[in-house]
Amino acid sequence: MSLLRRFGGDHPYLTAFTIFELAFLILPSVIILVVSLGSGEIISFPPTALSLKWYASLLAQPQYVQPFLNSVIVATFCTAISIPIGIVTALGLNRYDIRFEDGIQIYLLLPFTVPLVVSGFIFLIIFGRLGWIGHLWAVGLGLTIINIPFMIWSVASSVNAFDPTLEDAARSLGAEEIQTFLKVTLPSLMPGVISGALLMFMLALNEFIVSLIITVTDTETLPVAIYGAIRGNISPQIAAVSSVYVLVAIVAIVVADRLVGLERFLHT
Question: Record's Gene Ontology CC terms (predicted)?
Fold first, then answer.
């Protein structure tokens, strides 16, 4: 109890619970990273010896390299088309009386109400009818549709905090609409845009269920490739592949902190 009070101040039990929760969230990632450094042919924790050979072997494994490239392409496509959609939609909902605004608000709740497996089968039917199955851009389009609400929410937080009198001041000084948008409005919205873009990229990179349903061999993404691999044999190489996501997540957090600030990122 004295130790809890020493580190927890007036709320020792809350501090202890917070530490336990953080450890619970971080421990799986730490285990994956440690296991991936094992030198043996089978997974063991803790590893008997440390080695980077499983990371080195990944570059010679096309069953992982190509799905990883597919995931990056899909995530980039998803992010690129979500940015203008998020900006336009957030500004429109904030500034204009849109006839179908209630319908759009309902759509923004779909990520929490419609199971991803249902969305995946809907895309499978529609894309199959249109002949889009087998195209990588179609995978990106599907992931954009299910994740775009997160982008809109992120930009909307910056739109709601934006002072419209800044635009009035710019126009009163002779700036045209496009100049006002590019030099006043858009820079003010950039924290929300950057946060939303990072979020969209990570969500698309990590998406498994929808990707599993609408991808084929040529468009297989890394999460689907990992799933196929663990059904056969679980080796430290799979742990090395999985740790790529941990490293990407760490990089994304660092980028968000540098560009926006973690506190602002979490609030968006």
Answer: plasma membrane
